[in-house]
Amino acid sequence: VALAEDGAADAARRVTLVFGLHDALKAPCGGGGATFLGEEWSAFVERVGVNDAMLWPSEPPADERCLWNARLFPIGDGADGTDGDD
Question: For residues 5-25, b (16+ Cβ closer than 10 Å) or e, as one string?
């Protein structure tokens, strides 16, 4: 996914999205039923060692947190979605 600030083509940034075919990206993460890469959300969080504060630093409220608005996918400057320094 290419992102541009103020519509400027030279300011384009990229995000690489990776998720499972059957992941429900808008399912609440706190209520069960949410999966990421086919794995239950709670199991994924425990396995990789992330917490809510890392994925949702300020918003949304806890009852609206889902994979759709989590900060799982870094934004990069390079064409391959990296920071461009590689």
Answer: eeeeeeeebbeeeeeeeebbb
* Nearest CA-CA partner of 31 in 72, 68, 65: 65
How many Cβ atoms are within 10 Å of 37's Cβ, its own excluded?
Answer: 10
DSSP-derived letter for residue 38 is T
Higher pLDDT, 10 or 50: 50
Q: What is the pLDDT of residues 37-55, one digit of tens each?
A: 999 988 988 999 998 889 9
- Angstrom distance (rounded) from CA 59 to CA 40: 22
Q: Are 47 and 35 in contact (CB under 8 A)?
A: no
Q: Is the model's pTM score more than 0.70? A: no
